[in-house]
Each structure stands twice: as structure tokens, then as C-alpha cells.
Amino acid sequence: MMNDDDKAGPTGPTSAGQPDASHIPASLVAPEAREIAIQRLSTAFEQDYLSADEFEERLTEVYRAASSNALVAITADLPTTIPGGSAVRAQAMPGKVSSVLSNVERGGSLIVPPELELRSTLGNIELDLRDARFQEGVTEIRVRAIMGNIELILPERLEVECRGRAFVGHFAHRASHLPSDRAVGPDHVVVLTGRSILGSVEVRHAPSTFDLAGPKDSHSSGSTSE
Fold it and tell me: Which residues pair with 120 in a beta bridge?
């Protein structure tokens, strides 16, 4: 006969109303679970449950999470249902966008991670970030086009350091010049690195509805490639 001490303990929600994470296997995080966590953070940020600093810190933790336990802990204190969550205007991007023998197009109100990787192999990527939200500091965008095409549109006044190269291909950045009296130490900078091998990489600027750094004058120059 089974004693009371031998009976299994409860496996449902804890008294605080949150799921008991101890019963979740510490396995590798599925991409779908990571995307759900990113969406929950985005919704919480849009509804003012998280400050900008808290959002950026937790978003970085989501990208680094290596187990389901770690992922649950990042969003455990957020409300299960956030009023108006369906009206979220901005959505966090994944850290990598790839295209193999296919066409990928993305745009709209996106939140760009501090590190973004774009890879096109015999494919096409068109990424419109003119209305995207960039985190303060340096954003690194690494591109690699192998017999493929990558077209990247950035906000008009965003400062870009282009370090890309081409091998029997095309790598061009049509710069958007900033005023000569611009303050030292810009709040938003994109460092663009990578290679185009028998492919094409085009980076240009376009007017954005998202005010990145206040009113500034800008104009375009010709493209350069290697």
C-alpha cells in the first residue's frame, strides 16, 4: 500500500499562478519557442510593461538562451495576457535571415537586434529597414551573398561604416552624408561587414517615418564597390 510520502507532488501551476519551470526539461530551445518569447517581450514593451533598457537586456538574453528553463525565466514575470497585445506595431527580428534558392522580403516596423546576419545563396533577400527601430550604440550587420542578391534599405540619417568586399561581384553602399557639425559619438551606428562572391550587395538609404535622431539635413552620394 502506497504511503502519503510516496505520492508524487503537484505538477500544475504554483501558488503564485506561474508555471513550475522545474518540470520543464532543460533541452535545447526550439526556434518556435524563442520566437514566442521575443513576441511576448515586444508586446510587453509596446504596452509599457518594460522600459527600453529592460527590453533590450531581455531580448539579448532570449537570443543567448540555451535551454527551455532559461527561456521561461526571462518572461516568467510578464502578464500572461497583455491588454491590447494584438495592436503591437513593432516586431523583433531574428538574428539571422537566410535565403537559399528562394526569395525573402521583410519590412515595416521592425526591431533590429544588435547583431544581424544576412546570407543569400543562389537566392534573393530584400530587407527594408527604413522604418525599423535600431538600438542605441553599434549595430553589426554581417552579409554574405554567394551567387545571390541582397538589397538593404536603411533610414536616411543612419550613420553606416561599410567594410564589405566583393570577389568577382558587386558590393555597393550609397552613403547618406550627415552634417559636418554633427556631434561626436552618434547614438546609432551600423557597421556593415561581409562579402559578395559572384553576387550582389546593394545598400542604400531612404526617408523614414521613424525619427531616429532628430531633424538633420542629408543628401546622397554615388555608390562604391570593390
Answer: 99, 145
Looking at residue 155, what DSSP letter applies? E
Annotated domain spans of the chain: 22-87, 93-220
- CB 188, CB 194: distance < 8 Å: no
Task: Copy the grid coordinates of residue 122.
Answer: 543562389
Burial environment of residue 21 by CB neighbours within 10 A (0 to 12, 13 to 18, 19 or more): middle
**What are phi and psi for residue 98, nearest 5 degrees?**
-130, 155
Residues of the chain with pLDDT under 70: 1-29, 79-90, 177-186, 208-226
What DSSP letter does each residue of 28-68 carry, written as one string?
Answer: PPPHHHHHHHHHHHHHHHHTTSS-HHHHHHHHHHHHH--SH
∠ Cα 95 101 102 (to 5°): 65
Which residues, 6 or more positions from 221, have their beta carbon under 8 angstroms from its beta carbon? 174, 175, 177
Grid cell of 164 as nine digits: 564589405
Count other Cβ atoms within 10 Å, centred on residue 90. Answer: 17
Single pTM value for the model: 0.55
| Cα separation, 51 vs 11, whole angstroms | 33
| Average pLDDT over all residues of the chain | 75
Q: Check if the beta carbon of residue 160 is closer than 8 Å to that of residue 193.
A: no
Give the whole-angstrom CA distance, residue 221 versus residue 15: 62
How confident is the model over 39-81, as pLDDT tens digits? 888 878 877 778 888 888 888 888 888 887 788 788 878 765 5
